[in-house]
């Protein structure tokens, strides 16, 4: 069995490179394009490891329950340090996101 540095429930930060005409308030490393119409920038995404998959893949989940599969070796992915967990505590998913949703019971 191979040991992976990530475990279910780990809080992670994924640095997403983006490009567009108006960087948002959380954008960093903002650079204008050559013609000046767009900007390239980085945005940090705050996710939780929902599942460690085969072939060194991770299923990550957002605060609102969306999921995304990323390679555990991706250089843009890293575990959140204590300062990132504290400073951005409201932006990480709650542990309840990992719980399977209970089916709704309707009574007539």
Describe the fold and architecture.
The chain has 108 residues and is mainly β. The protein has one domain. Helix content is 6%, strand content 40%. It has one helix and six strands. It has one helix at 82-87; strands at 11-20, 28-32, 39-53, 57-61, 67-71, 77-79. Strands 1, 2, 3, 4, 5 and 6 form a six-stranded antiparallel β-sheet that branches. A hairpin with a 6-residue loop joins strand 2 and strand 3. The longest helix has 6 residues, at 82-87. The chain is globular and about 45 Å long. The model is unreliable at 102-108 (pLDDT under 50).
The topology string of helices and strands comes to: EEEEEEH
Rg is 17 Å
Class by SSE composition: mainly beta
Ends apart, CA distance between termini: 50 Å
Q: What is the mean pLDDT? A: 85
Which stretches are poorly predicted, pLDDT < 50 over at least 5 residues?
A: 102-108
Describe the largest sheet.
6 strands, antiparallel
Percent in helix:
under 10%
Number of domains: 1
Task: Count every beta strand, where a strand is a DSSP E run of 2 or more residues.
Answer: 6
> How many H/I helices?
1
What general form does the structure show?
Answer: globular
Fraction in beta strands: 35-45%
